[in-house]
Amino acid sequence: MAVEMDEFDRRIVAALVDDGRMTVTDLATQVGLSKTPCQVRLKRLQETGVIRGFRAMVDPAKLGMDHVAFTEVKLSDTRETALQAFNAAVRRIPEVEECHMLASNFDYLLKVRTADIRRYRVVLGEKISALPHVASTSTFVAMETVLEAGSRRTRR
C-alpha cells in the first residue's frame, strides 16, 4: 500500500538515499525545512515503512565476494504452500542476495554472491538445488557489474 507523500517527503527520501548518514540539520537545510518539521517528517517516514532502515554499503570485491551469478529456478510445484516453503527456505541462504518470483518460463531468479565459481558450485549443489520443490536450475555468471542496487543516486 502506497504512503501519501508530498514534495518535502520525496526530497527527504531522495536526500537520504544519496547520503543516509547526513545529520537532521543538514537534511533540513537540503530539503528546505527547519529542523523540527524535518525530524517529524523523518520519523513519520520511518514509522510508515517508507524508510525501512539505514545500512552500510560495502564493496564486495574488497571482501573477496565479487563473483555474481544469476540462477533461474523452476519449481516442480507452484501451489501456494510450495511457494511459501521455497520462499522461507531461500531466505536462509546467506549467499542469495536477491530472490524474485517471475512470470516467465521459470519461477524464480536469484542473485547469488560468492567468493568464486567453486564456492558458487557448492552453494548451487548443496543449498539451492536442495530447496523445496526445485525441479531445475540454470546459471548465468556476471562478467562485470555495471550498475548495482544502491549505487545509483536519485534524480532530482
Total number of strands = 4
The general outline is elongated
Unreliable segments (pLDDT under 50, ≥5 consecutive)? none
What class would the helix/strand composition place it in?
Answer: alpha+beta
What is the rounded Rg?
20 Å
How large is the share of residues in beta strands? Answer: 15-25%
Mean pLDDT: 94
Helix content: 25-40%
Helix-strand pattern, N to C? HHHEHEEHE
> What's the main sheet like?
4 strands, antiparallel
Strand order of the largest sheet: 2-3-1-4
The oligomeric status of these chains comes to single chain
Q: Terminal Cα separation, in Å?
A: 24 Å
DSSP summary: helix tally? 5
What is the topology?
Layout: H1 7-18, H2 24-31, H3 35-47, E1 67-75, H4 80-90, E2 96-101, E3 108-114, H5 117-128, E4 134-141
Antiparallel strand pairs: 1-3, 1-4, 2-3
Helix pairs in contact: 1-2, 2-3
Describe this entry's structure for a reader:
A hairpin with a 6-residue loop joins β2 (96-101) and β3. The chain has helices at residues 7-18, 24-31, 35-47, 80-90, 117-128; strands at 67-75, 96-101, 108-114, 134-141. With 156 residues, the protein is an alpha+beta fold. It starts with 6 loop residues before the first helix and ends in a 15-residue tail after the last strand.
